Predict the structure.
Amino acid sequence: MGCRMLIATGELPLSQLLDGFRLMALNRNEGHEYRGDPEHIHGDGWGTVTGRAGRFESYKSVIPCWQDSKFADLYETDPDFIMLHARRASPGVAVKSEFTHPFEEDGWYFCHNGMIHDFEVKRSSDSQQLFALVVENLRQCRNVTESISRTVKSLNDYSALNFMLCKDDQLYVLNMYGKRGAKTPNYFTIKYLQSDDYTIIASERLHGCGEPWQEMQNGTLLTVAMPDRRIQFCGV
């Protein structure tokens, strides 16, 4: 139904990022339409991609991040890039390792927030099928922005297609929610912060990382060119 995710690059305030991500997963961070609902936690697994100087390592687990010692170990690391995802499984989709984000294919790492109804029920989740569609379009046209645009235009029935996609020094974040997601726009609006030292894009604003946070517009794609962290926007 919905997940929480975060991606950041630069000289990171890592403790604040991890603290904020944990609170997002527990639904104790920013106010949104599901804030205060004790059952709306994001505890169906979590995953991360971390790196320094473009060398990525990934890890994911089916247990909640706040119960995993590997999450605590991240506080002792020093990455200049991190992707984090806390899963809340869609109805009818099992809590399994293969359904846990981020996914990886052809060197691309991907995580998603939302529920997609266009896909037929198969052995793979809606998020996996979305990523497969993105990868298929990438292989066909080799232009990332055009591939994402093709993907978005081929889908019609979803709460949100929100995703984060990265490879090497390329980073793409899509904010796209549909009619179903329009009922809870605060939950599906992605926020971002750019400081002199780092850039953070996340499902929610994180306390202690600085100001001002800004909101992405629905239907926009944010791109970040690393290592200079230059942000650009385009419509899809």
